[in-house]
Each structure stands twice: as structure tokens, then as C-alpha cells.
Amino acid sequence: MYAPARSVPRPRRRRSAAIGVRRSAATGARRSPAIGTRFAAAIGALLVVVLAAGCGDGSGDGPIWQPGQGGGSTASAGPAEADQPDASGEPAEKSISLTATGDVIMGNAPSRLPANGGKGFFDDVKAALKGDLVMGNLEEPLTDDTGAGKCGPQPKNCYQFRAPPGWAAHLRSAGFQLLNQANNHGYDYGQQGYENTQSALEAHGLKHTGAPGEITVVDVKGIKVAVAGFSSYPWSNSLIDIDAAKQVITMAKGMADLVVVQVHMGAEGADRSHVKPGTEMYVGENRGDPIRFSHAVIDAGADLVIGHGPHVLRGMEFYKGRLIAYSLGNFAGGGKSLNSSGRLGWGGVLKVSLTAEGRFVGGEFTSTAMSSVGRPAIDRQDRGLGLVREVSRADFPQSGARLDGTGKISAPAGG
């Protein structure tokens, strides 16, 4: 399924660099220089051989991707609200809601784009995309053809995705506020496509994260939230180098009240719903050790870990009182970009409420499913919820999250 391996350079720093903490254009504040050059240097020192993993050809005639076939900006997310008193009459501890989805592909230009220019693509799930900070894993560049597509002129058994830059407006109207670029498709159209994606998101008031050393800080109702993206590819913070990852989290913890990790990890395929200790490999690629990585970043100060990458839902675990969602599965695969058969078509929306100290207040999981053409919708059968409940119990009998029949999430006793 993959094109020959080739080396890919890390994104260079732009004048309006994505790397580092940045302030919103709406505030008029000046963007600061990159944080922690040592992090980018450490990641750049890694020898990462990049295979053209899991991407579509964009020609309209190529095969549909079948996973497992083998072949910061500081911005206000809302006004601060006064604490409401609890039953005792004392002010309740302030909390905020963080909402997230798994992989998002709106379509594949030029010939596999949804009808009506993508208008209404997310209408069936907009009600679930609510929260004080709404995040998604953007599994494609938003760019015109840069001439640097990773599949080259003969894209057989290679998959690359892109959507028009203006389609960032659909993400904004759906409710998304921050998109992660740390995944295997972030560089499908090279460095220029990567930077074009950042510009497209910014033009529509959306934040992004995932570049080496990038920590995106968002002010959410007076609580500062730092978000950093990780993957096994050189255009992101490293999932493989645990020590470097911990350094990024330590830096983020010094900049914000809460730290959220977006991480693209784990092998792909319909049979990959279970999480086991150890490194996961996929077609020769090191896709990280999900449990070791997640525990390490929480040890370093992370408050929530949001996983994606296997293209199937995985279990949820509490570690030191912090929630780890090992994979939120496929959320959208417009233009038949993602296989929607069976559990490959199941995803979900995770909503977690945390206090400024990182204490878990509550959470819920809403099942979604892709149509045959990859459009997301609420799954009234709750198949995703059933799967997450099953694998959470099986893989983490002591520490697994408890989900009831409505999707409400609670920690296990002692979790």
C-alpha cells in the first residue's frame, strides 16, 4: 500500500511561524519566537524513515484506503464565568469542557469532494461538537496542489489527501476551534502544503498544533490550556523519543494550567482495537508504545491524552487520575477517503470536564458513524460506545474508564 520510503525534512520556520507560542490575530498581540529550540533540535536528530503511509491518490481513479491492507496561539474560547455555588453554598470549583474527535478528512481534491462544495458536511454531528474547546485531528492538508505530493506521478498503492484551503470554513462552522497536524498525512503535499494548511486555518480563526516544539496555548474561560501534538514523523513532536516528549510537556506545564496531548499512535486496521504493552509496528514503521508514551507524558504533567491513528476505536484508561483515550477512531472520511465498513466506520466525540488543577469532573462519549461516502452522523445504535466499553474492560481491568449505557464516563475506584 505504500510508496518507497523517502526522507522528509522538518517544517522550516515561517515568518508567521507555527512553531512556538503565538497570540491570536484577533487580539493584535505580537507572536513570540519559537519555544525551546532544543526540542526541535532533539526531534530533528532522530532518524525517521517516512513511508507514504495510508494516503489517497487524489486522481479519482485510485483505490479507496483500506487500513490494515498492508499495501501556540493564546486566544479566548469564551468569556470567563463566575463560579456557581454548590449545595453547601460554597463556590463550586471552576471547570471547563474539552471536546475532541478522531480523524477528520473532508474529501480529496480534485475529484473526490462532497457535493455542494462541502456545505453541510458536518450538519449531522454539529450538536455533539459543543464544548469550551473543541479539537479534531486533521488528517489532510488544506492546500492547492503544490506539485510536491508524496505519491509522485505514479500513485499506485500510495494515498495522499488534500482539501481546498477554503474548506477550513466548514471546520469552523461545525464547531471546531483547534486542529492537530501531527499525523502521517500532515506532509502529504510537502512543506508548502503544511504551511498552507496553517494559513488556511488561521484565516478562519482556527488554531493548530503539532509542529516540532509547537505548544498552542488557549485561554478557555480564564483557564489556560496548552495543547501539543505528537506522532512518529519528523514534522511533529516525537512520539518515539519519550525523553524529548516529556521535555515538551514540562515546558507546556510551565505555560498553562492544563496540558492536553494530541497523539497519532498505534498500528492500523480493523483488528487493532486492543491496546497491549509494547511498541506497535505497522508496515515497517514504529508507531510508538501507546501505554508507555501516555503514562510518561502524564508523569511529566499532562492532564488529558487524546489518541488517534489506528482508524478504530480503542479503550480508555485512567492513570494517576488523568484520562487516556487511546483512539477515537474515524470521525469523517469524505469522498470515500476512509474505509467505512464495520468498526472502521465507527468513531465518537469525547467530552471531558476538568478543573484548573486537572481534576476529572466528568465526561461523556457520543457514538458516531460514517456513511458509505464518509459523512459523519450520530450513531443511534451506539456501536462505538459498545466497543469502547468492551475493550476498556478487557484491556484495563483495574484502570479502565467506566462508561454507562448513555456514554457517561467515570473513573474506576481508586482511579
TrEMBL record:
Residues 97-335 form the Capsule synthesis protein CapA domain. It is an enzyme of class 3 (hydrolase). Residues 1-31, 61-94 are annotated as: Disordered. It comes from Micromonospora fulviviridis. Its EC number is 3.1.-.-. Belongs to the CapA family. This is CapA family protein. InterPro entries: Capsule_synth_CapA (IPR019079), CW_Biosynth-Accessory (IPR052169), Metallo-depent_PP-like (IPR029052). PANTHER family: POLYGLUTAMINE SYNTHESIS ACCESSORY PROTEIN RV0574C-RELATED. Keywords: Hydrolase. Residues 17-26 have a biased composition (Low complexity).
